[in-house]
Amino acid sequence: MNDQRPSMFVPALIGGAAAGILSGIPFVNCLCCLWIIGGAMLSAYLLTKESRMPLSAGDGAIVGIFAGIIAAVVELIISIPFRAVTDKFMRNMMERFSEYYEEMPRGLESWFQEGALETSFVWSIIGLLISVVIFSALGALGGIIGISLFGKKTVQKGQGAVHVPKNTSDRQP
After folding, report:
1. DSSP-derived secondary structure for 60-108
2. Are 13 and 70 in contact (CB under 8 A)?
3. pTM
């Protein structure tokens, strides 16, 4: 019997890419935290399908962390083409706020005209680092949840562990 653990790279890549794509699209990214947790759960699900042995919550956390890191990178790449739209939306929103709010700081209009909202390479890298930390934490949570939902369970019976399949496709003929 082969008791080796399956590779975590492919499940993390699939789950992280799905979460990163959904997190990078404007207006869909409002559920960013949910996408990251869901992508990590997908990674954990795919990992349990490849594994013949029960996986621990630590395995779920690891695959979730990898999925979170991949999601942060994919989110940055996906969000680049949408930056012009997002910046224009933010400018319009702030201009509307300045019409209705009397105590906006002076010179705010010139700040927008000078392009203060435009992101630079340095801000993109800082945002990526922050996203990696947050997405990794959410990914670990999603991976643990995914393993607890989809993982194979073992029941202690006597001195040896007995494998109890969760669905009928895992049963031996």
Report:
1. HHHHHHHHHHHHHHHHHHHHSTTHHHHHHHHHHHHHHHHHH-TTPPTTH
2. yes
3. 0.73
HSE (side-chain half, CA atoms, 13 Å) at 128: 17
pLDDT at 92: 79
Integer Cα distance of 102 and 1 in angstroms: 73
Q: What is the pLDDT of residues 45-91, one digit of tens each?
A: 999 998 888 889 999 999 999 999 999 999 999 988 888 777 777 77
Give dist(CA 19, CA 82) in Å, integer.
17
> 142 and 41 in contact (C-beta within 8 Å)?
yes
What is the residue extent of each domain of the chain?
Answer: 9-166
Both tokens of 60, joined, read 């779920």
